[in-house]
Amino acid sequence: MKFTICFLLGLVTLNAVFVKKPSDPNAGVFAELEEIEEHALGRKLLDTIALQMKNQAPLADIARMLQELRENLLLQQQQAELKHAADEADCAAEIAGYNRRIDYASNEISESTTEITALSAQVQQLESEIENIQVQLGILNDQEETLRTQRAKDAEAFTQRIKSTADVVEALNVVAAKLSAIQPEQDPKAVFLELHNMGKSNPIAALVSIASAFSKERLQQTQDKIAELRQSIEQSAVDDQEAEVQAQIDYQNMLAQFADQRKNFQNALKDNEAKLTQTENALGAQKKRKEDAGRELATATAGKTQKENDCEALRTQYARDSEQRTKEIGIIRQVEEILATKLEGASGYLKSRIN
Question: Which residues form a coiled coil (predicted)?
């Protein structure tokens, strides 16, 4: 059974190979026209030509129509090429402009960043110097206050010493005067009796009473000692006075030095504060410069991206339109060739369209 089926299939195959259909001389033209009709412009052309043939329009008019259509498409292509060249030049120019803006903004950001770093360091340095000067001024004020307080204490102590010295000298003068008036070598019993009667109320008188019991030589020695003591105390007072005068001079000199130092500190403080203000203003300007450059960089980058996308869209459109026109020009030329060389076969096809 299987062998029979295979044998029959073989016979059918052999018949299909060796049996030929009669050839159609217009088959090639019909195939070309059918291929043309697959394109929208081709269908419109064939419909138009078929209608004109139905109206018995001269073949020259049909050829002229096709020529005008083809030349119009060629002109459109030439115009499209010119526009494409202009678009490419515009794209190149605008993108170059965006690149310049991007380069400039990037350079601005780089330079301003460097300036910000340097100016920030200067601000920190100036702030540190200002703080140090303020500390030095505080120390100077404390030293001056200490000096003034100590000078006041020293002046008061000097006044007390001068008063005490004067009292001692006066007492020594009184003693010396009393001693010079007494008679030496008095009876000791009488002297002790006199001391007993005086008690503690008058020490100078007591001293004079005691001295009255001295011998003449010893009394003279006592008077000499008192004179030496008075002279020593008076000299000490003179030395103290001179020391006080020198202390006042030194005090004024120190005040003058403090005033000079304070003036120098204040001038330095004023200069540094002015520099700080100037540097902070410059720092603010550089920060604004960087912010502006950042916005410009973002704007230029976005503009460049948009322009590149627009240009790519124009290229795509140009390529698509050029391809479409090339196909349409090819179809028109194919139709022109068919009408010029294969009119008989084409006429039958076109008549069948009309029917």
Answer: 59-143
- The two structure tokens encoding residue 314: 């124009």
What band does 113 get if pLDDT is binned at 50, 70 and 90? Answer: very high
- Token reading at 176: 């010396």
DSSP class per residue in 53-65: HHTT--HHHHHHH
Q: 229-276, pLDDT tens digit by residue?
A: 888 888 888 988 999 999 999 999 999 999 999 999 999 999 999 999
184: which DSSP letter?
S
Neighbours of 34 (CB within 10 A): 12
| 193-232 pLDDT tens trace | 443 444 445 555 555 555 555 566 776 777 788 788 888 8
Residue with tokens 């002279």: 231
Distance from C-alpha of 123 to C-alpha of 141, rounded to nearest angstrom:
27
Q: Contacts by 203-209 with C-beta closer than 8 Å and gap 24+?
A: 204/171, 204/174, 204/175, 204/178, 205/178, 207/175, 207/178, 208/175, 208/178, 208/179, 208/182
| 130 in Cβ contact with 269 (< 8 Å) | yes
DSSP annotation of 58 reads -
3-state secondary structure string, 238-290? Answer: HHHHHHHHHHHHHHHHHHHHHHHHHHHHHHHHHHHHHHHHHHHHHHHHHHHHH
- For the chain, how many residues are written? 355
Terminal alpha carbon distance of the chain = 52
Measured between alpha carbons, how far is 315 from 80 in angstroms, rounded to an integer? Answer: 11
Torsion, Cα of 106, 111, 116, 122 (10° steps): 170
How far is C-alpha 34 from the chain's CA centre? Answer: 73
- Written as six digits, the tokens of 271 are 């200069």
Q: Which residue has the tokens 């292509």?
A: 77
Q: How far apart are CA 204 and CA 182, in angstroms?
A: 13
